[in-house]
């Protein structure tokens, strides 16, 4: 019974962390090697340096990405917004040209205009906040930090004392015709 409950919690956490990926069609998506071509240039980052663009791993396809998230300052905290989603191996759903809508969030905002990670506040050497599943509007505790050895962002969703880590690779900024970070200044206030 205990093992079954652990599997249920693990499934819930995986769903919460991959919330923005739930809208992706089961089609070819970029592999890690293709994503590396779009990866941000290597630069030293501190464990608390989480701002910027990151590839969101596809929960169904190992070594593949389902989209790109942007971490930015929002009021006194940090939030993350999905800014690009892959369909058929290409980005065609962006913040500037959104297609898909959330299913469980009131008013069904666009996936690429939805802050699925919110209220990240630095506590010690990690940020702690909330991640929201856009299908159910359920919110879970979230910890985020940059792993300096792996050079990847660690996003950990938690339910009670169970947790699941995902490792997000840094990405280059998107072209302004896909997403303009300046547009967030209007929504952040």
Descriptive overview:
- It is a single chain.
- With 189 residues, the chain is mainly beta.
- It has one domain: Lipocalin (Beta Barrel), CATH 2.40.128.
- It is built from three helices and nine strands.
- Strands 1, 2, 3, 4, 5, 6, 7, 8 and 9 form a nine-stranded antiparallel β-sheet that branches.
- Strand 2 and strand 3 form a beta hairpin.
- The longest helix has 16 residues.
- The N and C termini lie far apart (47 Å).
- The N terminus is likely disordered.
Number of helices: 3
Helix-strand sequence: HHEEEEEEEEEH
The count of strands amounts to 9
Estimate nothing, just give the exact number of structural domains.
Answer: 1
Largest sheet: 9 strands, antiparallel
State the low-pLDDT regions, or none. 1-29
* CATH secondary-structure class: Mainly Beta
State the separation between the terminal residues, measured CA to CA: 47 Å
State the share of residues found in helices, binned by percent: 10-25%
Average pLDDT reading? 79
Q: Indicate the multimeric state.
A: single chain
The CATH topology comes to Lipocalin
The fraction of residues in strands falls at: 35-45%
């Amino acid at each position: 019974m205990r093992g079954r409950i652990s599997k249920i919690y693990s499934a819930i956490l995986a769903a919460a962390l991959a919330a923005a990926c739930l809208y992706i069609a089961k089609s070819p998506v970029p592999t890690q090697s293709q994503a590396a071509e779009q990866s941000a240039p290597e630069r030293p980052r501190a464990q608390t340096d989480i701002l910027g663009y990151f590839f969101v791993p596809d929960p169904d396809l190992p070594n593949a990405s389902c989209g790109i998230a942007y971490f930015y300052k929002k009021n006194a905290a940090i939030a993350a917004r999905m800014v690009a989603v892959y369909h058929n191996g290409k980005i065609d759903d962006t913040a500037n040209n959104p297609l898909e809508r959330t299913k469980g969030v009131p008013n069904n905002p666009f996936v690429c205009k939805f802050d699925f990670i919110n209220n990240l506040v630095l506590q010690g050497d990690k940020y702690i906040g909330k991640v929201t599943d856009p299908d159910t509007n359920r919110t879970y505790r979230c910890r985020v930090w940059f792993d300096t050895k792996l050079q990847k962002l660690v996003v950990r969703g938690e339910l009670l004392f169970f947790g699941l880590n995902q490792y997000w690779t840094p990405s280059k900024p998107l072209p302004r015709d896909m997403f303009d970070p300046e547009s967030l200044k209007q929504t952040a206030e």
